[in-house]
From TrEMBL:
Protein name: Nucleolar/coiled-body phosphoprotein
Disordered: region residues: 1-78, 211-290
Comp. bias intervals (Basic and acidic residues): 280-290
Domain of life: Eukaryota
Organism annotation: Senna tora
Compositional bias per record (Polar residues), positions renumbered to this chain: 61-78
């Protein structure tokens, strides 16, 4: 048998096809010459990508056109009316006095501030909330409510634009008592130093105390000591049977009859009082200024006392030294009794400062902070122009060839 089985046979294109039906003649392809087949090969078909087989995503316009509009929205805020806000503030002011309810009530008050509910029409009711908070039996520096007081009065600074002059002055005093004083209990030296700076600034802004301020202070102290005795006497001296004059006052307790144009006598009385309205306003302004300065001085004295109690902590001592020294230098801005208190405080701080310089303290241990230790170390140290080249600051260079 030969090696090539197809030897001597014509090529496949030259083989005659068998006869077929007329329909098959039209379907039979014509023979392609070899030179054409070799010169122009049929290009291979490109592979179909899988991404082309995926269904195209409908656009937003098509989706809105095909699907019906169904949306579910949740209402996250409630638009409360002014009447509802006032009622809420009244409830908060009645509960915030109770120490057990102070935390929850203060948080509700903060929510009212953040919601923008404190406006010109509701500012007086919100001020009554703050006033009730400061009239609580527990002081604002108590550890149990310290954080809540700090958060409430820090947030209340954003609502002072709606307060009047008297309310703003009172708010300044409350801020010193509830925010600055609580900052003095911190464990952060930066916050403590910032609070001391605010106290120093407030002391510098105080006017010089006058003799009238000293007299008013003595009168207020006498009034506070004899207030209990006078209250008992008033209870004993009050008659049990009301007179005719008392009945007339009870009939018009608020003096509203003078505003009704009914009687000529009352209208004449109001005309006679119109001339003194300007004087009374000036007197009221002066009294408000005195009251504001008095309350501010008392708040600053309490801050100095709080700072003095923390003098045992080493990192607080330098800041307290500077703070009390500043108060002693500006002692003329305080009243007589407050001047005596600041003088005693400065004498105590100065004595402890001298003991710390000597390395002594009440406990018998070395009570020197890091600043003072470095101050003593480098007080007699010689530093050369080559930045401490040499052991004692001389100019002999020491090379380490290690």
């Amino acid at each position: 048998m030969a090696d090539n089985l197809f030897e001597g046979l014509p090529p496949p294109s030259a083989i005659p096809l068998p006869a077929s039906s007329p329909s098959s003649e039209h379907e039979a392809p014509e023979p392609v010459p070899d030179n054409i087949r070799q010169s122009s090969p049929v290009p291979a078909s490109k592979p179909i990508l899988k991404s082309a087989l995926k269904r195209s995503k409908p656009t937003e316009s098509d989706a809105q056109a095909t699907t019906p509009k169904k949306s579910l929205k949740f209402k996250t805020t409630t638009d409360a009316s002014e009447t509802q806000v006032i009622e809420a503030m009244k409830k908060i002011s009645s509960h915030i006095k109770t120490p057990a309810k102070f935390s929850k009530a203060s948080k509700l008050a903060i929510q009212l501030i953040q919601a923008g509910s404190v406006k010109s029409g509701t500012s007086d009711y919100f001020f009554s909330v703050l006033e009730a908070a400061m009239s609580s039996s527990i002081p604002c520096t108590d550890p149990s409510v310290r954080a809540d007081y700090y958060a409430l009065f820090s947030e209340a600074q954003n609502a002072t634009e709606h307060f009047n002059r008297k309310q703003k002055n009172q708010m300044t005093t409350w801020t010193i008592a509830a925010v600055v004083a609580n900052d003095l209990y911190t464990d952060d030296s930066f916050v403590f130093s910032k609070a001391a700076g605010r106290i120093k600034e407030a002391i510098s802004n105080l006017p010089v105390a006058t003799e009238d301020d000293d007299v008013d202070e003595e009168v207020s102290l006498k009034h506070s000591t004899g207030n209990v005795d006078e209250g008992d006497k008033m209870k004993q001296d009050t008659p049990l049977v009301s007179t005719a004059k008392d009945n007339e006052e009870e009939a018009d307790p608020f003096g509203l009859d003078a505003l009704i144009p009914g009687s000529t006598k009352k209208s004449e009385k109001t005309k006679g009082k119109n001339g003194g309205t300007i004087k009374t306003r000036k007197e009221e302004d002066e009294e408000e200024t005195k009251r504001f300065l008095k309350s501010q001085r008392e708040a600053l004295i309490s801050c100095l006392e709080i700072a003095a109690r923390r003098y045992k902590i080493p990192w607080c001592q330098t800041v307290i030294d500077i703070l009390v020294k500043h108060a002693f230098d500006n002692v003329a801005r305080f009243t007589a009794r407050q001047r005596d208190a600041i003088g005693k405080l400065w004498a105590s701080i100065r004595e402890q400062h001298i003991l710390r310089k000597q390395g002594k303290s009440v406990s018998g241990k070395l009570d020197v902070n890091a600043f003072e230790w470095l101050q003593q170390k480098y007080a007699s140290e010689k530093i050369s122009i080559r930045h401490s080249v040499g052991a004692s600051g001389d100019r002999r260079a020491q090379q380490w060839l290690g």
